[in-house]
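User: Hi! I have a protein structure encoded as tokens and I'd like to know what sequence might fold into it. I'm fairly new to this, so please keep things simple.
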């Protein structure tokens, strides 16, 4: 079993492989990957993602890492819709659980005009960008990781995507190692534990 640092060190050479950036599998699988890790390693993973973005983006003209923090995307959409202050007020009067569904409706999650998916799809350069999805734990339970992956696969087919997942990924996503998000068979493990 590898340490977290050993696994993190293997990300850069993996994403710089031409076959990683350009290919689909032999069965035409989508180019989606999951880097799962222990939730307590969140800060180390965040720091490494930041380091990788700077290192790769400054050293290579033909590849760029584009990070999308799902929590920040959610807040951006709520601000743009002038809904963030209303959500904060609603949470103060009601409960955190009471605001989940209204936020989902505002984000149009799982609908054709999903605003989070739209922001991601509009912000990438096909065949150049490697997409890093972060903030999975911060955005839960409003944004569910399996929902994002399911909705992105129809919008993004020329870019590899790596979701940094604080939990376990086998044939299901177990957020924080405890909450079963859903079965998701399409993605591959980026680096085995």
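Assistant: Happy to help. Inverse folding works backwards from shape to sequence: for each of the 193 positions I chose a residue that suits the local structure. Here it is:
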């Amino acid at each position: 079993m590898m340490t977290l640092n050993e696994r993190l060190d293997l990300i850069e050479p993996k994403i710089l492989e031409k076959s990683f950036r350009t290919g689909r599998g032999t069965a035409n699988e989508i180019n989606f990957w999951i880097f799962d890790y222990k939730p307590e390693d969140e800060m180390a993973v965040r720091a490494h993602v930041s380091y990788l973005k700077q290192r790769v983006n400054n050293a290579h003209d033909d590849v760029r890492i584009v990070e999308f923090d799902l929590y920040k995307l959610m807040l951006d959409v709520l601000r743009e819709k002038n809904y963030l202050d209303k959500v904060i007020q609603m949470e103060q009067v009601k409960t955190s659980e009471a605001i989940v569904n209204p936020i989902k409706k505002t984000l149009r999650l799982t609908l054709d005009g999903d605003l989070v998916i739209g922001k991601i799809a509009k912000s990438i350069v096909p065949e150049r960008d490697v997409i890093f999805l972060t903030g999975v734990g911060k955005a839960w339970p409003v944004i569910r990781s399996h929902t994002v992956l399911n909705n992105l696969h129809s919008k993004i087919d020329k870019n590899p995507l790596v979701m940094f997942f604080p939990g376990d990924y086998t044939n299901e996503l177990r957020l924080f190692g405890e909450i079963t998000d859903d079965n998701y068979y399409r993605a591959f493990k980026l680096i085995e534990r």
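A useful reference point when you look it over: The first strand starts at residue 32 and ends at 37. Feel free to ask if any position seems puzzling.
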